[in-house]
Every structure is written in structure tokens, then in C-alpha cells.
């Protein structure tokens, strides 16, 4: 083959220093390649080189594209925070906010554990949701759902679940009737507070919800829910306006339902009756009525009982024991009933007797159901008659 002009002018242009020339180069047989194939190969190699040059970008271009993609994937918020963290005032502000949040958490934790009066806790914060729901039940007059949240004291014996359902339905109907007559479409919710309060009588701390409700432009009422048990409440309503009597009666219904099959007044009455040495029995007149579901001003049954009881004691007859029997619910009359048992003894003759006095229980107290029965074999007839008529209803 003939040499090109470049090879003649520059014989060392293709010299590779890494390759050492062999002293005796082997002669290879020359193979003649057709011109056509050479042209085709050269053209194909040129095409491949062109395509490879188009497909594979330079290294610098690839790195720039990758960095631009990473920059676009980086969240904008992180870049803003990174920028703000370079300012000292922002860092100090974050520390101040963290200290405030930590202080709030510590206060709520302390309130949750110790439950001091008036202190907030995690429980009081979440209680606003439940208080708002209960308050809405009252405002809408939905007494069925409201009475479902009333905690009922149930005795260990003589308790039936179906009695409780009937009792709730009975109270719900009475409350609905009162609400529709006096408060329907008038009550509007104002504010709600949830805090711990200590019971003055028992000394037990309860979680209390207080809902302030606007009735008229001049009258505001308070609806109070005292947490009693896991899900139950004792409910009371009060006002200083013209609807005070209605709200007092509604409170009596709530209390009547909450007491259910046991009343604190049972113990109060029995303990007072058994006291001696000049005890003041006048308080007992507030518990006994001719009709325990109506507040009649001319009802003197309680006062008459106190007078008869004092007369009996003056005749050397003492009361040795007093107890109420377990409550029973009558589905026909929709009334709770009990029996008061009084044990008497004549201090002169040691003669004794027992009075069984049945009562129906209403929202205001106890109403005698029938004339009591006296069981005795040694007390004289006059004393027996006095004991039997202790709760007799006087004719008008």
C-alpha cells in the first residue's frame, strides 16, 4: 500500500511509546479487502460513533443534571428552616416556645395525677368535648339521651336491670314534659368549664362540668354535671330567675333517678331517729309528704310526724333501731317503694314492738303508702295506737 502524505511528512505521528518494536517482526500474509466492504465498514463505524456521541453526554453535563434534580426534590420547608436556623433570634424563639410547651405539659401532668381543686389536666381538656355533647342534649330537650348518662346507685341485693330501664324512661318523660312547657326553644349555650371540685360532705374530689345557659336576656341558668363513676353523672340545674322552680323540680327528678335504689337520706333519717339526749327531730319534717311528687305548701305530714314522735318519746318509749328495707320498683304504678322498720321499747316495762311502715318514694321524699302495722305482744294498746298512727294522713 502507498503511504499517505501525512505519514511521509510525520513518520512518528502514530508512534506509541508504550509499544516496543520487535526486532524480527513476523510477516503476516496480506489479505486484500474489497473496497466496497471497507467503505461500508467505515460508514457503519462513523454512524456508531455519531450515535454514541449523541447518547452519552459529557460527564460535566450529567453531574449538573443530577444536582438540579436533587435540588428540586429537596422540600422547600427544609430549605426555609435551614435558612432560619442561621439566625440567632429564630433559635432563641424556638427555645422559648419549647420551654412554654414543656411547662404546660408539666402542669397538665401534675393536675392529672394530684387532681387539685381548680387545676387543669389532660382529663379536663378532653372533658370539654363530653360536656359540650351533654349540654346540647339538654338544650335540644333530648332527655332520653341525657338520662342515659345519669349514674344510678344500685344495691347489692334485689336489683333488676329492667327496673332501671323503666325508671330512666319514667324520669325522661317527666323531664321532657317540664322542658317543653317552660324552656323549649329558649335555652342557648354560653360557656362551659371543666374542673376538679371537692365535695363538702364526703371530701371526695370529683370532675365537674358547669354549663352556663342563657334562657332569656335577663336570666341565666347553670347546668352542673358531677362525674360519679366511669360514665355516669349526678346532674343539677339552677337559676335565680323566674324559671328557678322549674329547674329545681328538674334537679329533683335527676336526683331521684341518681339515687335509684338507695338514698343518702335513708341513713340520715335512721341515724337521727336513733339519737337521744334532746336531739332536734324537726329536720325530719322535710322528708315526709302526703304526695312525694308534688310540692304542696299546706302539706303538714312531716310536721305532724315530728310532733307525734316527740309525744311518744315523752311517754317513756324509746326507739332502739331504725332501718329501710331494699327498694322495689312497681311497673304498674311506676313507683319505687320501701318499708321503714322502727323498733320501740318501753323503758319502764321493757315491752317492745316493731312498726312496719310502707312508703312510696318520689322526687321530694317519702309518702306513706298505707297505715303502718305494729307487731307486739306486750306493749299496751294506747302506745301501739300511737306508734301505728305516726305517719297517718290527717283529714283536711
Tell me what the structure shows:
The protein is α+β, with helices and mostly antiparallel strands and about 400 residues long. Helix content is about 45%, strand content about 20%. The strands form two sheets. Strands 5, 6, 7, 8, 9 and 10 form a six-stranded antiparallel sheet that branches.
Structural class: alpha+beta
For the termini, the CA-CA separation is: 153 Å
Task: Give the overall shape.
Answer: elongated
Radius of gyration: 48 Å
Put simply, the count of helices is: 12
Low-confidence blocks of residues:
8-54
Listing every helix as H and every strand as E from the N terminus to the C terminus, the arrangement reads: HHHHHHHHEEEEHHHEEEEEEH
> Oligomerization state of this entry?
single chain
Strand content of the residues, in percent?
A: 15-25%
Largest sheet: 6 strands, antiparallel
Average pLDDT over all residues: 81
Counting DSSP E segments of at least 2 residues, the number of strands comes to 10
Indicate the percent of residues in helices.
Answer: 40-55%
Amino acid at each position: 500500500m502507498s503511504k499517505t502524505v501525512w505519514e511521509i511528512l510525520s513518520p512518528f505521528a502514530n508512534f506509541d511509546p508504550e509499544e516496543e518494536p520487535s526486532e524480527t517482526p513476523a510477516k503476516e500474509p496480506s489479505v486484500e479487502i474489497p473496497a466496497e466492504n471497507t467503505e461500508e465498514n467505515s460508514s457503519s463505524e462513523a454512524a456508531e460513533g455519531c450515535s454514541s456521541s449523541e447518547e452519552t453526554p459529557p460527564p460535566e453535563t450529567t453531574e449538573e443534571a443530577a444536582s438540579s434534580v436533587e435540588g428540586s426534590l429537596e422540600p422547600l420547608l427544609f430549605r426555609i428552616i435551614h435558612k432560619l436556623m442561621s439566625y440567632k433570634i429564630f433559635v432563641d424563639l424556638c427555645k422559648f416556645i419549647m420551654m412554654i410547651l414543656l411547662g404546660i405539659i408539666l402542669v397538665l401532668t401534675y393536675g392529672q395525677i394530684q387532681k387539685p381543686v381548680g387545676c387543669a389536666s389532660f382529663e379536663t381538656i378532653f372533658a370539654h368535648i363530653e360536656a359540650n355533647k351533654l349540654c346540647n342534649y339538654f338544650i335540644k330537650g333530648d332527655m332520653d339521651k341525657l338520662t342515659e348518662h345519669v349514674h344510678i346507685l344500685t344495691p347489692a341485693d334485689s336489683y333488676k336491670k329492667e327496673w332501671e330501664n323503666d325508671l330512666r324512661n319514667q324520669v325522661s318523660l317527666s323531664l321532657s314534659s317540664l322542658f317543653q312547657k317552660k324552656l323549649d326553644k329558649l335555652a342557648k349555650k354560653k360557656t362551659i368549664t371543666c374542673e376538679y371540685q371537692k365535695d363538702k360532705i364526703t371530701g371526695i374530689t370529683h370532675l365537674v362540668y358547669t354549663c352556663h345557659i342563657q334562657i332569656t336576656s335577663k336570666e341565666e341558668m347553670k347546668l352542673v354535671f358531677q362525674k360519679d363513676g366511669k360514665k355516669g353523672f349526678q346532674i343539677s340545674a339552677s337559676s335565680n330567675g323566674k324559671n328557678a322552680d322549674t329547674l329545681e323540680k328538674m334537679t329533683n327528678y335527676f336526683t331521684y333517678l341518681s339515687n335509684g335504689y338507695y338514698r343518702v337520706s335513708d341513713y340520715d333519717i335512721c341515724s337521727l331517729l336513733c339519737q337521744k339526749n334532746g336531739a332536734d327531730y324537726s329536720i325530719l319534717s322535710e322528708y315526709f309528704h302526703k304526695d312525694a311528687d308534688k310540692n304542696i305548701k299546706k302539706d303538714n305530714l312531716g310536721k305532724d310526724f315530728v310532733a307525734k314522735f316527740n309525744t311518744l318519746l315523752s311517754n317513756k318509749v324509746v326507739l332502739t333501731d331504725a332501718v329501710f328495707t331494699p327498694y322495689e320498683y312497681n311497673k304498674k304504678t311506676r313507683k319505687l317503694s320501701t318499708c321503714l322498720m322502727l323498733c320501740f321499747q318501753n323503758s319502764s316495762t321493757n315491752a317492745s314492738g316493731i312498726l312496719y311502715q310502707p312508703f312510696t318514694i318520689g322526687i321530694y321524699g317519702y309518702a306513706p303508702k298505707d297505715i303502718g302495722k305494729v307487731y307486739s305482744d306486750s306493749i299496751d294498746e294506747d302506745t301501739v295506737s300511737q306508734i301505728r298512727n305516726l305517719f297517718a294522713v290527717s283529714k283536711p
